[in-house]
Amino acid sequence: MQAVQLSEEGTSVPFYLSQGDECEIFRAAYNNQMPLLLKGPTGCGKTRFVAHMAASLGRPLYTVACHDDLSAADLIGRFLLKGGETEWVDGPLTRAVREGAICYLDEVVEARKDVAVVLHPLTDDRRMLPIERTGEVLEAGPQFMLVASYNPGYQNILKSLKPSTRQRFLAVDFDFPAAAQEVEIVVAESGLGTDRVAPLVRLAGKLRALKGQDLEEGVSTRLVVYCASLIQGGMPIPRAVEAALIEPLSDDADIKQGLRDLVATVY
Ligand code: ADP
């Protein structure tokens, strides 16, 4: 289930509970034609935020989940064989520039290095996208916006954004919502009542406190929503907690037992 909100114009937009002034920053970036970088752990609401803002601004959204094999050609486009003829097919970035859409590059540091080369002329005041293969040079209109995200928690020396790339973006730091807000989000997303969501969020807080000691990454709001949805669907709490909050976090039997001991302090 995905809750919706109404925009100022009365159209429905994906539900997003703001944590601070990130919606204002996004609007300012859009109005000033500046790219935006969202930093934060997985499952804390970055993708939902972008979907919410794109719908609020009435712009189409192209989301690209970046991976280590994603190249500039995947973003820009390529010639494909169609019925014996070669035909140029725009990639999502090119389409976004042509249509004046928002292009969201999720986990941008995962992408191949040649992606940065493409982003540079697009993220400074030139706002240009050269398409070498066709000889075209597209100029981005005022409605085009580039948004990228990355998870500083995963950073290593090989995979970090170069200063020459990151200093072209405005940036907003994301984290897991405060407990009261997380309860509100999980209730809206799962339909489970506040009194049953509150202990789950308390448990998530305790599990997050283990980050760095036993766990590489704290439990995400996404997993708390999954857990609440399973319980709302009728699954017994211990089974839902095991499937959504224990097993996804670790493969190590001792660590999982430690997590179960923590669960016992809440339920
Ligand atoms: P990320 O992109 O940071 O990995 P997502 O945006 O996919 O995370 O968030 C995961 C899920 O958590 C969303 O699908 C939504 O259910 C929920 N969520 C997290 N934060 C919020 C929020 N502030 N408002 C509404 N839903 C949220």
Can you walk through the features of this model?
- The chain is of the alpha/beta class and 267 residues long.
- The protein has two domains: 5-173, P-loop containing nucleotide triphosphate hydrolases (Rossmann fold); 179-265.
- The chain is 42% helix and 19% strand.
- The protein has helices spanning 22-31, 46-57, 72-76, 92-99, 114-122, 163-166, 179-190, 194-208, 221-232, 237-246, 253-266, and strands spanning 4-6, 12-14, 36-39, 61-65, 77-82, 85-90, 102-106, 128-131, 136-139, 145-150, 170-173.
- The strands form four sheets. A five-stranded parallel β-sheet has the order 4-7-10-3-11. Strands 1-2 form a two-stranded antiparallel sheet. A two-stranded antiparallel ribbon has the order 5-6.
- α8 (194-208) crosses α11 (253-266).
- The two termini are 26 Å apart.
- The mean pLDDT is 92.
- The protein binds adenosine-5'-diphosphate.
- Adenosine-5'-diphosphate is lined by residues 15-17, 42-48, 177, 185, 189, 221-222, 225.
- Residues 35-169 form the ATPase dynein-related AAA domain.
- GO terms for molecular function: ATP binding; ATP hydrolysis activity.
- Belongs to the CbbQ/NirQ/NorQ/GpvN family.
- This is ATPase AAA.
- It holds the Pfam family CbbQ_C.
